[in-house]
Amino acid sequence: xxxxxxxxxxxxxxxxxxxxxxxxxxxxxxxxxxxxxxxxxxxxxxxxxxxxxxxxxxxxxxxxxxxxxxxxxxxxxxxxxxxxxxxxxxxxxxxxxxxxxxxxxxxxxxxxxxxxxxxxxxxxxxxxxxxxxxxxxx
Length: 138
Fold this sequence. Notes:
By secondary structure, the chain is an alpha/beta fold. The protein is built from six helices and four strands. The strands form two sheets. It has a two-stranded parallel sheet with strand order 1-2. A two-stranded parallel sheet has the order 3-4. The longest helix has 27 residues, at 102-128.
């Protein structure tokens, strides 16, 4: 299990919470990555880790409004991997009638534009024959 794009102060115990079983599992089986500073970097860091460890599938956990772009970035970095989406629902994000809440609406609009830019970047990369970030780093 790998978690990247983390704030430098995040530690395994914080991710596991108060559940002792999760703490034991996290200590044994959780790798934290701190290199990435954005979603593109996160996908690349995870791809390099998966390649190094010999994994070919992952569960992608992120906020529901961020999932479409995250999936696109991870699928681009890991074209042959099986990726299972597990969206989470942040308490401050208003899922129902999100358009009525300025903060939630802004998140959705920003994520949509970032998603469209990512799709454009993938299309241009395909056009010029550029490889995904993880493969280029190998």
